[in-house]
């Protein structure tokens, strides 16, 4: 009877031993390998995920002067579209004409280890410190529309409108608009290198027109509101002013508003510089005499294309300029995008 009980106990213990051994084996072994996925659509290699020269996600950081001006919005959108075509994520920010804010944006790009940085400097000289920081981090810097005037930092390539030649076109338009006689003013934005080139070309052409005299140059901050105030000051101090050169379209809109409020439409000729649709309509309506046209979409596309070439080890010219064309009522009357009256 005792032997029977022992045998029965041994038989009952066997399942428990088997379970214990299985548990121990599970704790000490590696999990089975995950089966490889079956064939599917080809998507190419995963994008890199870090900064310049590393196996990182290819990202381009962009800081433009302002996004309040449609010119820079068009440029930024063109960069994003061209970047997507070439496998880059393009992050567009705006310095809002604040050099310190733009420097912070560049520092943020450096922390994110972007592959390249594009700047439209808020201040063409002060931007040097931000570019130098990117240089130290080994991140290539490109400038678009507005160049850096700092000689200690390095920019791979500057892509922009040929602002100097555009300024000369604006000067010729002013001579035509005024008949080459009278007093002229400039509503400026001297912090930007691009504007410096425009006013340089404009002044050189007017220097050859003996009947025209530049009597006032005021900073309009490249905005409608500030230009409106500057134009009011010009009109009050120079009641016989014949023309105003405005360095971009928002500036021209402010000048036109001041001229209309003063009841001097048709007597003061406005020359602008840009080519926004609203400005083209103003040319057709006779509020703006004419303006050199820029191509912000081309600037944006060419900038990204230059980065792609540089990353591929190809030669990139240090300066790439896009010509302007003069737009007057002759062109406006044939423009299919404008409202017919």
Properties at a glance:
alpha/beta; disordered N terminus; 341 residues; 44% helix
Task: List the SSEs and their pairings.
Layout: H1 2-28, E1 59-64, H2 70-85, E2 89-94, H3 99-111, E3 116-119, H4 128-136, E4 141-144, E5 157-161, H5 163-178, E6 182-188, H6 193-207, E7 212-219, H7 224-237, E8 241-246, H8 249-261, E9 269-271, H9 277-284, E10 290-293, H10 296-311, E11 319-322, E12 325-328, H11 329-332
Parallel strand pairs: 1-2, 1-3, 3-4, 4-5, 5-11, 6-7, 6-8, 8-9
Antiparallel strand pairs: 10-12
Helix pairs in contact: 2-10, 3-4, 5-6, 7-8
* CATH hierarchy, class of the largest domain: Alpha Beta
Strand order of the largest sheet: 2-1-3-4-5-11
Helix content: 40-55%
Domains, number: 2
Q: What is the N-to-C order of secondary-structure elements (H for helix, E for strand)?
A: HEHEHEHEEHEHEHEHEHEHEEH
Mean pLDDT: 87
CATH architecture of the largest domain: 3-Layer(aba) Sandwich
What are the segments in which pLDDT stays under 50 over at least 5 consecutive residues?
A: 1-55
């Amino acid at each position: 009877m005792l032997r029977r009980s022992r045998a029965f106990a041994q038989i009952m213990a066997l399942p428990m031993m088997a379970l214990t051994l299985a548990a121990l084996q599970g704790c000490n072994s590696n999990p089975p390998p995950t089966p490889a996925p079956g064939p599917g659509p080809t998507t190419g290699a995963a994008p890199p995920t870090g900064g310049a020269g590393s196996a990182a996600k290819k990202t381009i950081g962009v800081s433009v002067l302002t996004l309040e001006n449609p010119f820079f919005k068009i440029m930024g959108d063109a960069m994003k579209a061209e970047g997507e075509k070439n496998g880059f994520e393009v992050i567009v920010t705006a310095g809002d004409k604040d050099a310190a804010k733009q420097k912070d944006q560049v520092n943020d790009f450096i922390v994110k280890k972007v592959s390249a940085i594009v700047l439209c400097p808020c201040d063409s000289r002060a931007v040097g410190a931000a570019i130098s920081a990117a240089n130290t981090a080994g991140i290539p810097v490109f400038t678009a529309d507005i160049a850096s005037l700092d000689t200690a930092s390095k920019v791979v390539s500057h892509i922009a409108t040929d602002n100097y030649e555009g300024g000369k076109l604006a000067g010729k338009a002013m001579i035509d608009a005024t008949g080459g006689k009278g007093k002229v003013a400039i509503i400026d934005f001297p912090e930007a290198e691009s504007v410096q080139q425009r006013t340089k070309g404009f002044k050189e052409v007017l220097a050859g027109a003996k009947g025209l005299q530049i009597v006032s140059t005021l900073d309009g901050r490249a905005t409608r509101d500030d230009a409106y105030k500057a134009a009011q000051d010009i009109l009050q101090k120079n009641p016989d002013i014949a023309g105003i050169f405005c360095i971009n379209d928002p500036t021209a809109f402010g000048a036109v508003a001041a001229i209309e409020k003063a009841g001097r439409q048709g007597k003061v000729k406005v020359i602008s510089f840009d080519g926004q649709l609203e400005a083209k309509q103003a040319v057709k309506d006779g509020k703006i005499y004419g303006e050199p046209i820029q191509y912000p979409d081309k600037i944006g596309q060419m900038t990204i294309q230059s980065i792609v070439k540089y990353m591929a080890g190809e030669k990139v010219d240090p300066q790439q300029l896009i010509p302007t064309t003069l737009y007057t009522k002759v062109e406006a009357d044939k423009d299919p995008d404008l409202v017919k009256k």
